[in-house]
Amino acid sequence: MSDHHVYKKVEIVGSSRVSIDEAINNAIAECSKRIKNVEWFEVQETRGHVENGKVGHYQVVLKVGFRIENS
Amino acid sequence: MSDHHVYKKVEIVGSSRVSIDEAINNAIAECSKRIKNVEWFEVQETRGHVENGKVGHYQVVLKVGFRIENS
Amino acid sequence: MSDHHVYKKVEIVGSSRVSIDEAINNAIAECSKRIKNVEWFEVQETRGHVENGKVGHYQVVLKVGFRIENS
Amino acid sequence: MSDHHVYKKVEIVGSSRVSIDEAINNAIAECSKRIKNVEWFEVQETRGHVENGKVGHYQVVLKVGFRIENS
Amino acid sequence: MSDHHVYKKVEIVGSSRVSIDEAINNAIAECSKRIKNVEWFEVQETRGHVENGKVGHYQVVLKVGFRIENS
Amino acid sequence: MSDHHVYKKVEIVGSSRVSIDEAINNAIAECSKRIKNVEWFEVQETRGHVENGKVGHYQVVLKVGFRIENS
Amino acid sequence: MSDHHVYKKVEIVGSSRVSIDEAINNAIAECSKRIKNVEWFEVQETRGHVENGKVGHYQVVLKVGFRIENS
Amino acid sequence: MSDHHVYKKVEIVGSSRVSIDEAINNAIAECSKRIKNVEWFEVQETRGHVENGKVGHYQVVLKVGFRIENS
Amino acid sequence: MSDHHVYKKVEIVGSSRVSIDEAINNAIAECSKRIKNVEWFEVQETRGHVENGKVGHYQVVLKVGFRIENS
Amino acid sequence: MSDHHVYKKVEIVGSSRVSIDEAINNAIAECSKRIKNVEWFEVQETRGHVENGKVGHYQVVLKVGFRIENS
Amino acid sequence: MSDHHVYKKVEIVGSSRVSIDEAINNAIAECSKRIKNVEWFEVQETRGHVENGKVGHYQVVLKVGFRIENS
Amino acid sequence: MSDHHVYKKVEIVGSSRVSIDEAINNAIAECSKRIKNVEWFEVQETRGHVENGKVGHYQVVLKVGFRIENS
């Protein structure tokens, strides 16, 4: 077994009508359906749309890191 | 009707004793009382005051974007 | 009494299984056990670990500012 | 007459279906309808929308500087 | 239907002998051949090669955002 | 009375033939003629013009924060 | 043949118990097993784990650029 | 012949009444009159003057890279 | 004697009613009461409070570097 | 046992006559003599002194993270 | 006469035992002895040495801009 | 003799087939052939070319500082 790993980071944007925390969870959940070995995330930006004077959607831009299989 | 718009961004700071999400909502609500066509926000900074070893206020610095009327 | 103060800022990382807000509070609470006169915090980074396709821990890197005693 | 001036900077977003240069010009033209003494601009960000696999709109975020009257 | 979406951002570099605008369009066109639902781009860097004392190629580094299908 | 406030930040540029400190003061003084409740400033950039091999004007770009009335 | 190319950049993290140079090489080697036409890299961050008061692993975050085939 | 080269980067500002692309070309042309082996440029900032409510000059700040002779 | 040293940097905030220069000096003086071998400082941020339309306090955030004893 | 930890980050500068890797190791070794539970480092800056046309010392500015005991 | 100019920016560091303002002036004066048409400066960094618990020298890193002759 | 000095910083790019450390040394050596009083360097960027799935050249962008003679 190798004594070192290689990881990849991808950038995704999650959204939620409810909270910043849920926007992150939505992104992680979607990402994990397609990618194995997701290990960490880093928030890059937090933003959102306004509808009728209230936050309509929170949008959180994340970098998500996962281990490359067999690396 | 024009096929392009012009937007303006203003920088505001919302605060809340409860959560970061609420500080954002307080800022958007206040802003929407005075400005029409608010369309989006971007979080610039998150900070706060500490009182007796606990978060006293969350303070969130936002850029808020709105469409300039008749542009 | 002096008409000016000197403050120090330290960098800490709080974590929580529940939310970003709680990770900040955990850091502030821990910090206040050891340091007097904690007055403000500034969020530097928000990140976390993923476990089984969900957020395992939110991790928030903060700068915490306190007044240097007798300054 | 004062030997110093004070300026203000506002942040606006111009757009164009044609080019980056035109998006800047659209923003400056709109801005100059409402503000006197506009003197300079600084490009902050360039971005845009995609429609059917082509650039639909260029969007340019600018800081625009103008002299405050009688300053 | 979900009330929230998840987006992915990829980083590409377009080039053109003619102009910055064309370098962006070349990148978007190439990208749209391979990816569905491309919705926006953000310019990260503008640079280029010099040949015989003139701009040989403009190179524009873009982030391109697209909606993850069925998200 | 509300238990939270909303603040706005504007960006201004002060200048002075004498010093950086005076350029800041000139900007704050001008700003306070037009805006109530100015509470803090943040220096963004320091620059200036050169005349005959000497500093002609110091120019200081500031963000100035004030409380929105009745917020 | 086209007179312009389109490139993509991906973000990977290499690690090594030995040195920063080797961590970069490990990442490039792993990446080249999966991607053709890798042409350049840009170091984004250098960090690592500590074990027993010594560097356990160097970790280097890289952007890696490659030409999109047939572009 | 050496198997490695050394390059220098200088910072110049080109301007044009017409477009951003031309401002870059003016800077590269001027630079190439004085320096041999100019190989690449990187845009640092785009800004300009406003005259009568229109862009008077585009100003583009560039880093220009050239190979040091005999290196 | 070792042929290399290890330094530590701490972040402090000095303030003054008079000038930026004095705020720096106040921070250095306070810091030197508690720490030996202070060797350099780096200004991180300059800001301040406004009182009655004038600068009330200048606040300067500094990193201060000192040599770790016996390193 | 708590299900969350709190970490602190300190900023140190290691140096070496030999290499960047050794400057990092010198800093980590010195740091570990004084602090328990050091877990990771992040390189902030790499710089150095020049002596007689050669690198005299490499200097690497690091953030070093450690777990606060009993947190 | 050309309707556009080309400028060059160089980076210099001025120092002073007295004040930040004087460090800037020392740099501008030295620079103007060697370069014609110096027109503006931009402060990049402010730092200094500490001697016996006081500021020994202020050091200010500037970009200085001048018009290239005959451009 | 003056009690203050003026320094200049130039930006150079060194390369090496072997290591990052050697790329820095190559740049410093080349620079010192042409410039007197080189005193320090600051790493700005680390990047490189890939050849056949391996690092072909490390390229390190440096700022190099030297004292202006007779300043």
Walkthrough of the structure:
Twelve copies of one chain form a homododecamer. Chain A has a three-stranded antiparallel β-sheet, with helices on one face. The N and C termini of chain A lie close together (9 Å). The first copy, chain A, has one helix at residues 20-34, and strands at 7-16, 38-51, 54-67. Chain A has one domain (11-67): 2-Layer Sandwich (Dodecin subunit-like). Chain A is built from one helix and three strands; from the N terminus they run E-H-E-E. The interface between A and E is medium-sized, with 15 and 13 residues. Strand 2 of chain G pairs antiparallel with strand 2 (38-51) of chain J, so a sheet runs across the interface.
Report a brief summary of the structure.
The structure is a homododecamer of 71-residue chains. Chain A is α+β, with helices and mostly antiparallel strands and 71 residues long. Helices cover 21% and strands 54% of the residues of chain A.
Summary tags:
homododecamer; 71 residues; alpha+beta; Dodecin subunit-like; three-stranded antiparallel beta sheet; 54% strand; elongated
